[in-house]
Structures are given as C-alpha cells and as structure tokens.
Design goal:
The chain is an all-alpha fold and about 350 residues long. The protein is built from twelve helices and no strands. It has one domain. It is globular. The relative contact order is 0.15.
Amino acid sequence: MPPPPALRPGIIPLRPLGLGDILDGTIKLIRSNPKAVLGLSAVAALLAAIPLAIGQAFVLSSMGGLLANPQNTAGAEELTGIYGLAAQYGSTLVSYAIQFVVVTLLTGVLTRILGRAVFGGTISAGEAWQLVKGRIPALFGVVGLMAVIMLVPLIVFVLLIVALALNVSADSAVWLLGLTILFLIVYIGYYLFFRSRFAFASPAVVLEGRGPIDAMRRSWHLVTGDFWRVFGILLLTSLLVGLVGGILTVPFTLAGTLLGMFGAGSAATAVVSAVLIAIGATLGAMITYPFEAGVAGLLYADRRMRSEAFDLVLQTAAIEQQRQGWVHASADELWHPSNSARS
C-alpha cells in the first residue's frame, strides 16, 4: 500500500523535493503572488536595463551614420571619442552597478515571500520589505564577498596576460591565445563551483538571520554531500531561464538594433531604439530574476529537509496552521536553524 501523499499547504509538498517539485514550486510561487513577484522583478530589471539601452542606442545611431556615409568622420569620432567611449563602457558599468543593488534587494524580498508561500501564506511587497530591510547590509556583504571570489582570479589573469603581451614577440601570440582559452575553461568551472557552493547564502541571511561569512559557511555545509545534484539543478535552471529569456528578449533587441543602425540616426529613432532594447532586456530579466531566486530558495529548503529532517518541523507547523485556519506571521521564525529536528 503506497504511503499517503505528503502535506502540501503551499507551493511545495512538505517532504524532500525532486526536480519537478522545485520547478513546479517556483512557478506556483510566481502565480500565487504575481503582483509582488513579477512587479518587483520588472522594476528591478527596468532600472538595470535603461542605462545599457541608452548607451547601445547611442552606439547604434553612430554606426548607422557610418553605414550611410562611410566617409563621415564625425560618426567615427562619435564612436571613438570621449562621449562614445562613455556611452559604450560607462552605460555598462552604470547598468551593472544598478543591477548589483536592485538584484540584491530583490533576492531578499523574494526569499521572504517564498518563506511564507511554503505554508500557503501570501505577503505583500511592502510587508516583505519591512521584514527584509534589516538584513540588507548582510545581503550586500554576501554579494560583495562573492564578487571578490569571482573577480580576483579574473583580474589577476588579465594583468598577467597584459604583462606577457608586452614582453613577448608576435610569434608567441598563439601561446597567449591558447593560455587564454585554457584559463576561460578553468574559470567557468571555478565560477560554477563557487556559485553552487554559496547558492544558499542569501536564504540563510534572510530566513535564518545570519551574517555574511556565517551564511556562506552555512551554504557550504548544506551543499556538502549533495553538490552534484545542487550543481545540476542550478545549471539546468540557468539554461532554461536563459532560453526563455532569450525568446522574450531577442525580438525587441533585434528590432531596436536594426532600427538604431538603419534609422537615419535621428533623435526619435534613437529614443525608440533605446525603448525597444530596454523592453527586451526587462522582459528577459523579469523571468530570470524570480525563477533563479525561487529555485535557489526551494533547493535550500530541500537540503534542510534532507539533512536536518526539517520537513517534520514544517509538517507540524502546517498542521497547526490548518487547525487555526490561517498562516500566522510566526511561520517565518520556523526557518531559524534552532527549529531543525536534528539541531
């Protein structure tokens, strides 16, 4: 006789989760609270997309002028001059800086919404923000430490390549190219390894109230023993959301690019081009942000259920909440590690 189905008061069954449970739970998270989840994600994506879209529209407009008249030196000066370089690289840096801030904040808010949705409760964006705002410094600490871990090897390698390039002959260029390709292959593995190891640091900050280093240590511990499964699910999720995001983004980006390059370089054309590119980037990121945050949060819950018998804690609380007929805010406190059945 098969065992009875697991209790499911919210977006997931309260038992160790399979891949289908995690993906289905993430979709249910978005559907259960679309105003908060998709609305916040759209705002975050738009804020990050606007500077980059403006810079791309400027570059495309200048390229369009060169295509229309290759002898036009003014167009070339626009691309290579101070304003052109600022548009190309400055807008990218500004976009990344904004993305760093808004995605960090968004991850915290979405994680708090997810923590309540597991029990079938809903929470508004404003309520989630009130609960999360005290954890924002620790969230930025985690993201900052991750940036250091990811960027330091890259910076060191770039400086090494520049130093070698200044001191080798043209015949040695092939060796530099081979070294660069080898480094990129190794770096991809390095990036994916640490991304998987610290995937649960943000949930640990928001739901358990830990500091940055303690949260990263907690994530490392939770992933230990199930690294390849966590790695595979995160990688599959990135590929899936990349594909869906690309489908949404490409038509608008392509239209904006073509319009910017062949639209006679007018101000109106540049504005429309920037708007189209921004819409495309926003639509893609609007799906990417909540889905990746949702999968990471549910994987975190799964690892706690598997390694700490946390499903027993969740089931006991869910039964009590069903008896009372509503999901109390005290459910948020259940995520603290002191409530684990094996703590």
